[in-house]
Write a structure and sequence with these properties.
The complex is a heterodimer of chains A (about 160) and B (about 100).
Chain A (H helix, E strand, L loop, with lengths): L1 E6 L8 E10 L5 H11 L8 H22 L7 E9 L2 E8 L23 H8 L2 E5 L4 E8 L3 H4 L1
Helix pairs in contact in A: 1-2, 2-3
Chain B lengths: L1 E6 L4 E9 L4 H13 L4 E5 L3 E4 L1 H16 L3 E5 L3 H9 L9
Helix pairs in contact in B: 1-2
The chains are: A alpha+beta (about 160), B alpha/beta (about 100).
């Protein structure tokens, strides 16, 4: 794990950004520790409340699942790098892998009235964070951006 | 994750503790399969001690709900809170599951 805390590039005032990089074996056994670490990093987001934490952790968990289960299908030696950036009012997570591409961008929303038993993960990710970007290639990069909402933001 | 089964006079109660996710859902499925085989009239899933759920965990509960209902039984969820409750609401399952 690497950690750095720097003034935010181009920001005025005292805005700071904390950057942390994590690396996990891309297997489900590492899901609990990955979730716990991301949850701990959210403490660096000053204005994050419980809803923010729950939503970011849930979205990250679904992304982790998809990359491990689908991206690295048949590849137990895969690795997943996570770059996290925290400011006082938001968090960006970049999940970087070298597995098969996973379609995080363009997925039909599930028919929730039919109570599906699978295929809900990507829908959940898009519902829970403010921005989702996916660039397939070598490596694949999934970016999740979530901002806190506060009175200052609404003005 | 722990899943405790309690057979009561008027219902079968399942208490799930910890995280029900892609890693642990596979452990709970044999317990759910046995519940379905027993054809209970009413199943109550107590999530008071559930701290985290993901789409795989939701899928396991929905699968149990559908199979018990197909045999004429009923499944309700009680005491969901925090992250699990938020996920069930996001997937519009809160009302269907009696929350």
């Amino acid at each position: 794990m690497a950690v750095s805390t720097l003034p935010e590039a181009g920001a005025s005032g005292a805005a700071r950004v904390t950057r942390v990089t994590l690396r996990f074996p891309a297997v489900l056994d590492y899901r609990p520790v990955a979730i716990d670490l991301v949850s701990a990093l959210i403490q660096q987001v000053e204005r994050a409340d419980r809803d923010f934490r729950n939503q970011m952790v849930t979205a990250f968990g679904e992304a982790f699942n998809n990359i491990v289960i689908h991206g690295y299908r048949g590849r137990p030696d895969g690795m997943l790098d996570v770059e996290a950036e925290m400011t006082a009012d938001g968090m960006t997570l970049r999940l970087i892998d070298t597995g098969h591409g996973v379609n995080f961008n363009d997925v039909e929303p599930p028919d929730l009235d039919a109570m599906p038993e699978s295929g809900m993960g990507v829908f959940m990710i898009h519902s829970l964070v403010d921005d989702v970007q996916y660039r397939g290639g070598s490596p694949n990069v999934l970016t999740l951006v979530k901002r806190t909402t506060c009175v200052e933001d609404a003005r | 994750m722990k899943c405790l089964r309690i057979d009561l006079a008027n219902e079968l109660r399942l208490k799930i503790e910890g995280a029900l996710d892609a890693l642990t859902a596979r452990d709970v499925r044999p317990i759910f399969d046995q519940v379905v085989e027993d054809k209970p009239k009413r199943v109550t899933i107590d999530l008071e001690a559930l701290t985290l759920i993901d789409s795989s965990g939701v899928g396991a509960i929905v699968s149990l709900f559908k199979r018990v209902k197909a045999d004429g039984g009923q499944v309700v969820v009680v005491h969901a809170q925090d992250q699990p409750l938020a996920v069930l609401k996001l997937l519009k399952l809160d009302r269907i599951l009696g929350l």
